[in-house]
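## tool: complex_structure
## caller: assistant
## args:
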Amino acid sequence: MSDPIGPVPVVEAKGARIPLLGLGTWDLRARLCSRVVEQALRLGYRHIDTAEMYDNEREVGEGLRASGVKRGDVFVTTKIWPTHFAPRELERAARECLARLRLGEVDLLLLHWPNPQIPLAETLGALAKVKREGLARHIGISNFTVAQIEEAVRIATEPLVCDQFECHPFLDQTRLIAACRRHGLAVVAYSPIARGKVRNDPVLTRIGSAHNKTATQVCLRFLVQQDIVVIPRTSKVERLSENAAIFDFTLSDADMAEIAGLASRDGRLVDWAYSGRQKWD
Ligand SMILES: NC(=O)c1ccc[n+]([C@@H]2O[C@H](COP(=O)([O-])OP(=O)(O)OC[C@H]3O[C@@H](n4cnc5c(N)ncnc54)[C@H](OP(=O)(O)O)[C@@H]3O)[C@@H](O)[C@H]2O)c1
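## result:
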């Protein structure tokens, strides 16, 4: 294993200090999941992203304990699935997340996708209550559009610290990023390396060769250099250090502009159909 990475910078949002680099865990299961989480933490990652829907919270908790890293030094995020957005359901689901993780609280609890079937005020009220009861240090949203962010911020009774959404160089998210900035929400980028697709991009590869970095590292640097939190996932321990070595170089303004030019409005990879679904099953 390579040398542990240095301290990971944080982004601050409404009292939350979120490490700019986290480990995504979607689709990591069983022993592989706990092993990758453990190794990531040993290497210096200090932020893990999971969700009740990923069916791996138990293994995330095991990896956390096996790493020997102090609980207080790790930022743990989980997410509530929209079928559980009715107030009582939400509280029960949050307690079940904590039981699976075997933690007393998470650092950040998110609404995984908006659910138009249940009034947002009720769901946000329940989320705020869960926070006040000490189950989550911070709360936030995921996959909310600009209009949904505006509505959520207007009615939330406790601060929302982030919106987590798909964000990488191939997708133009300028409007969503601007809305987050306007309301003081951190931007958390999921699928930040476009599910591995950035690796072969010629522009990112060329810029990387000038910095002695891979295309994937250039992509992640492009995001963190804008204070966007990244949570790349890998199932391969050897890639953990590659994805973390992004704080020892700086992209020039010209590099940043050229990478921004790769974005398109239809560059989405994750099925957005969820957000408009009438029924959550
Ligand atoms: N809120 C939401 O609705 C939502 C939706 C999607 C994702 N997320 C979160 O965001 C995390 C990240 O997004 P994601 O998992 O969709 O995609 P991602 O992190 O952009 O990409 C993961 C893919 O890239 C590959 N990869 C990782 N490092 C690499 C490297 N250095 N070089 C080449 N390929 C590499 C991985 O393969 P190997 O395993 O073979 O390395 C995997 O196939 C998720 O795991 C999850 O925690 C949240």
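## assistant note: The radius of gyration is 18 Å. The longest strand covers residues 136-142. Handing back to user.
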